Automatic annotation (TrEMBL):
<feature type="domain" description="Isochorismatase-like">
    <location>
        <begin position="8"/>
        <end position="169"/>
    </location>
</feature>
<dbReference type="InterPro" id="IPR050272">
    <property type="entry name" value="Isochorismatase-like_hydrls"/>
</dbReference>
<keyword id="KW-0378">Hydrolase</keyword>
<dbReference type="Pfam" id="PF00857">
    <property type="entry name" value="Isochorismatase"/>
</dbReference>
<protein>
    <submittedName>
        <fullName>Hydrolase</fullName>
    </submittedName>
</protein>
<dbReference type="InterPro" id="IPR000868">
    <property type="entry name" value="Isochorismatase-like_dom"/>
</dbReference>
<dbReference type="GO" id="GO:0016787">
    <property type="term" value="F:hydrolase activity"/>
</dbReference>
<dbReference type="InterPro" id="IPR036380">
    <property type="entry name" value="Isochorismatase-like_sf"/>
</dbReference>
């Protein structure tokens, strides 16, 4: 495990659309991931925690057109309450949320906060979509990434484990750990 003294916690998309079991995108693992996320957030504090939100963009370039045709229930204004953070996530960061209309959250809005080659601990939802889509470009960009596996929620348990297995292939740029291991390294 890399040193985590100056690491950032990035909590990816803790939103109602992913937490609600009746949502087509609801993760059955969301509630189980909340306790580890809260423990990590307590350790990192509001000043070293970044919370992201996925919001639909107003543009539908390329493959986004067919994507929103397939998932038309999510084609709503970014201000729709389904895109709100879950209640426990309110106040996790003193920066508000970093909103992106892409699966991956790595890019200028995050690096403006973290610097160009930080160490980041990723948590959130969904492991097999937005977490992996953030981890891979972050590692490509030179960031050191630790994925807190039990603080992530997949679309299914099998998809969660498959995404963790793929990300583990990128060691030492991406390390998979438990939230307890992250906490003991701080």
């Amino acid at each position: 495990m890399p040193p985590l003294d100056d690491a950032w916690l990035v909590v990816i998309d803790p939103q109602r659309i992913f937490a609600d079991p009746t949502s087509e995108w609801g993760s059955p693992m969301f509630d189980d991931a909340l306790a580890p996320i809260k423990s990590l957030r307590s350790s990192f504090g509001a000043g070293r925690t970044i919370v992201t939100r996925w919001v639909p963009g107003s543009e539908r370039p390329g493959s986004w057109g067919p994507y929103f045709e397939r998932w038309s229930f999510a084609d709503r204004p970014a201000t729709d309450p389904v895109f709100d953070l879950v209640t426990p996530a309110a106040g996790w960061s003193n920066r508000g949320s970093v909103d992106c209309s892409t699966f991956g959250k790595w890019g200028e809005p995050l690096t403006r906060i973290t610097g160009p080659t930080p160490t980041v601990v990723l948590a959130g939802v969904s492991t097999d979509c937005c977490v992996i889509s953030t981890a891979l470009p972050a590692a490509d960009d030179g960031a050191t990434v630790v994925v807190a596996a039990d603080a992530c929620a997949g679309s299914t348990q099998d998809n969660h484990e498959a995404a963790l297995q793929v990300m583990a292939l990128y060691s030492p740029q991406i390390e998979i750990a438990t939230s307890a291991a992250v906490l003991s390294s701080r």
